[in-house]
Design brief:
globular; four-stranded antiparallel β-sheet; seven-stranded mixed β-sheet; 18 strands; mainly beta; Cathepsin D, subunit A, domain 1
Length: 213
């Protein structure tokens, strides 16, 4: 009887250990608020807010996704395999000092080319002039045409998608932007279509942009 009890106890411990083991997850594809994951060998497409086998997709973009497993959130990239030995990736941080005009100016790499930019949390999209677009070899007139108001009045504009925007190594792909006909804005505005992908903190005249991964 004692031997049987010990055997059953061992089975119970084995079952508990197996049940508590974190699932093995592979990230196969990422889209906005959608991720294709392989969870314990089974392929599953999750949309933001959905849960499967204890894995919840919090959010997803073209390069990273935020998952929640066993109450813990993790930021992962495509082709990333996650198991019980997962470690949270280090955080990328870019610091920008406020200038004499109380603005935050820095350089960004847009579609692979460097360009001065002004951080503007009040702009919904990254905004650039047609002069900037020509320097970047962007065929902006294939975008969706619109009209915007400037200091000179109403002018033509085009909504386009930039291949990538990178600031200090924090790269975001497929960034929506507005190209305004003429020379306005004088400096490319780094708007929320990029900034929504990063955490923003401001302290003592220093702006910090950060993102895990």
């Amino acid at each position: 009887m004692r031997r049987t009890f010990v055997y059953l106890l061992a089975l119970g411990l084995l079952w508990t250990t197996t049940a508590m083991a974190a699932p093995t997850i592979e990230v196969e594809a990422l889209m906005t608020n959608t991720a294709v994951l392989k969870i314990d060998g089974e392929r599953k497409t999750l949309r933001a807010g959905e849960t499967y086998k204890g894995v919840t997709l919090i959010s997803a973009y073209s390069r990273t996704a935020t998952l929640e497993v066993d109450g813990k959130q993790m930021v992962v990239g495509i082709s990333r395999r996650i198991g019980a030995d997962y470690q949270q990736p280090s955080e990328q941080v870019v610091t920008i000092r406020r200038d004499a005009r109380l603005q935050y100016n820095t350089n960004a790499t847009i579609n692979g080319r460097s360009m001065p930019v002004l951080v503007d949390t009040g702009a919904n999209l990254v905004a650039l002039s047609s002069v900037h677009a020509k320097k970047l070899a962007i065929d902006y007139q294939t975008g969706v045409q619109a009209r915007v108001e400037t200091a000179s009045g109403m002018v033509n504009a085009w909504v386009i998608t930039l291949r990538s925007v990178s600031v200090g190594g924090i790269r975001v792909e497929n960034v929506e932007a507005t190209v305004v006909e003429g020379s306005f804005p004088n400096t490319v505005l780094l708007g929320m279509s990029y900034l929504k992908h990063v955490d923003i903190k401001e302290s003592n005249g220093v702006l910090s942009l950060s993102r895990a991964w």
